[in-house]
């Protein structure tokens, strides 16, 4: 299929193009994930995915990327479909940590709302995928005479991104289950291009450089990392504040602290992140002062304000009621000041100017008030 095209030179060119498009690293691998399958199935068997049922529904596509790739070509006859079978995955990483967001300072200030650093700027799905599409078009322009096919993804389809990135040599999967790179830590996004172009494969990452370090396990606020590379999502603050649609378990609310969208603790205290680089991408810079906003200000947003100020942001993965739920918990974990108590009580007032709260939000506001009132009680 490759004709006279020099695939070795094209592989090198792809990596150069990737850097020009803002990616920090490109790697190429095949689609054999058999080594990762036992771990994935065991994780699901333990129900560590919680309410994320979509992780089970598309399991075959996750474990066999060629099935996902070929889904685009179901209209082709059997012979043509066979030719489209994925040969390679081009894995890419892009740094996202913006400068001066002072994560530890915000975490230690219970009047502020902590938002995971990846969600402070423009929605990464759009930014990364558009760059991947541009990269695919550059490849296609060179391989114009070949019957090449591409699909680009970034956390938007049933893809085992970290497993593929590890196979492509971008890093290793750490004890916290995130991908780590010796020169860049873990503050980066991943994306992939699936293609039937038989490019040469890069050397996979086979060494686990975490060693005996257990920093991520030790600092996890909710003890969600139950063992090396064993994350119980049902206890993870990112899951509780984003994926979970209903009530946050009462036993975990105090542990959430002031984290209102996601959690970065396992990254903040990972020794490898001393080598992380700040991003040069303007799209990943904080919007609407969300890197340092007061909880009371955020809690006062109406639904219209929430939708307006989070437009184009990954924060829109949650709805307004989840946003209010998370803020109520964070306020309940702060100081029982008069403005905080008044804001919580006013939100329960049916005549409140802000949209009446749902029963779920009401539950969390009542919990917050009760928790704060206990702190006002001598010996509470």
SSE diagram, text form:
Elements: H1 7-20, E1 25-29, H2 37-45, H3 54-57, H4 59-63, H5 65-70, H6 78-83, E2 88-95, H7 103-107, E3 114-115, H8 124-142, E4 150-153, H9 161-167, E5 172-173, E6 179-180, E7 188-195, H10 215-219, E8 225-227, E9 230-231, H11 237-243, H12 250-256, E10 259-261, H13 265-268, H14 295-299, H15 303-309, H16 320-332, H17 338-348, H18 359-376
Parallel strand pairs: 3-10
Antiparallel strand pairs: 1-2, 2-7, 4-7, 5-6, 8-9
List how many beta strands DSSP finds.
10
Which series of helices and strands comes N to C?
A: HEHHHHHEHEHEHEEEHEEHHEHHHHHH
Cα-based radius of gyration, to the nearest Å: 23 Å
The average pLDDT is 93
**SSE-based structural type:** alpha+beta
Please state roughly what percent of the residues sit in beta strands, choosing from under 5%, 5-15%, 15-25%, 25-35%, 35-45% or over 45%: 5-15%
> Widest sheet: strand order?
1-2-7-4
Proportion of helical residues: 40-55%
Number of helices: 18
Give the terminus-to-terminus CA distance. 74 Å
- Gross morphology is elongated
Most strands sheet: 4 strands, antiparallel
Query: Residue ranges: pLDDT <50 for 5 or more in a row?
Result: 73-83
